[in-house]
Fold Lysophospholipid acyltransferase family protein.
Amino acid sequence: MNRQEHSEPKTELEKLRENGKRRRKGPAERMWAPIKLHLDEDYQYVTKNWGLRFLYYFAMFVGMPFGYLFFKIRWGFGVIGKKNAKLVKKTAAITVANHVHNMDSPMLTYVFYPSAPYFVALKHNFEAFIIGGLVRVLRGVPLPSDIKNFEHFSEQMNHVLQHTTRKVHMYPEGEIAPYSRELRSFKNGAFHFAVKNDVPVLPMVFVFPKPKKVKLIVGKPVYLKDVPGTEGVKAPRQTVMLCRYVKERMQEMLDEYYGGLEHEN
């Protein structure tokens, strides 16, 4: 039997750690990191710190409107299908997207403004000089690199998804590939949380209508019941099937958009 079909979160974490040894360093990893982030059983992945909360609302209501204007001027940024995000407005959800731009996380907040999702990111993003603080303020959540802390991280993410209407964003590709028009291999982690907490997945894709221009397409939410063959199947298998199904939907979104561009030209 295919081992991937029965992968658990711990197995996915181990794969992530192994892949991390071979992958190229992203921009945040190449920045100066004067402070090392220590994750332990007391770390608040979903912060209760009032100072950070104040900075978040200050950033969202004062800073981000200028940020969105900058994105529009610099990259022609815009959103297609924003109305689809309203379909999960009253429920918690996992959101996923292709990771193809250094600014794709703050761009994503425009879809849910003023309530940004929690963004799960690799630990080094929080250690980069200045950038690390901004990531944390804008609801960044560091992904632990060990099993014990991963369980603590999972508990807090599960609590968010079970007891609030907030969104948790994950990049299933795991690492950035600037301006890539192709989807890469997906990891199962995001879909594990969707299955475990019985919440929908909102698929999104970044596309590039012209060189250095960026648009975001928001698809319709995917529920586990939408995936053929998942009824009565054990959760690990459901996770794999949901992952595959969402990736297919995202690929269709890319194909439809780029196919339309070719037709116009």
